[in-house]
Write a structure and sequence with these properties.
Distance between the termini: 51 Å
Largest sheet: 3 strands, antiparallel
Strand content: 5-15%
Radius of gyration: 19 Å
CATH superfamily: Intergrase catalytic core
Number of domains: 1
Shape: globular
Number of helices: 9
Strand order of the largest sheet: 1-2-5
Structural class: mainly alpha
Amino acid sequence: MAFFGLMYYAGLHPEEAVSLTVGCLTLPLPEQANDWGELHLRNATPDTGRDWTDDGSARERRQLKHRAEGDSRIVPVHPELAHLLRDHLAQFGAADDGRLFSGVRGGELATVTYRRAWIKARQDALTAAEQASPLAWRPYDLRHACLSTWLNGGVYPTQVAEWAGHSVDVLLRIYAKCVVGQDELAKRRIAEALRQD
């Protein structure tokens, strides 16, 4: 749940969630249940395939997408996500190297493993008609849901782009059509800006 929660509440790419370590987390204390935390993202481990890595592993450790080596990105942790992460650590702990998520045999979390979990979750949560639809078809769709929610909630695109690791241009090109119901809000803001007291 915490793995998928990182995509839904914090907009992480799956390869960012896979490589997340305890050292990347700043979580509020359990008694501060309504407080926000932070993720300090430093790298990602995309699933490139064994034929394409130098050491024969399925994942390659890299800098964040569209970032220079050594750059980082700070993403807010919603209180519900903080709760999921604390529960995950209490139940499973962290790997010896600090990673939050491990594979079946203790190594890196394989894409096939979390995809199987996602397929099972869709089967358990959705009706047959919903399962046949593109609704939440892949785990990455949770990231889209997160960014769409932030934009529809009125978070400025520049802030959403920063948290998501996008440029504003890319963000608006991908998500411009998802923002709904903003017409009336925009008109009220214009009216307030033009109002003479």
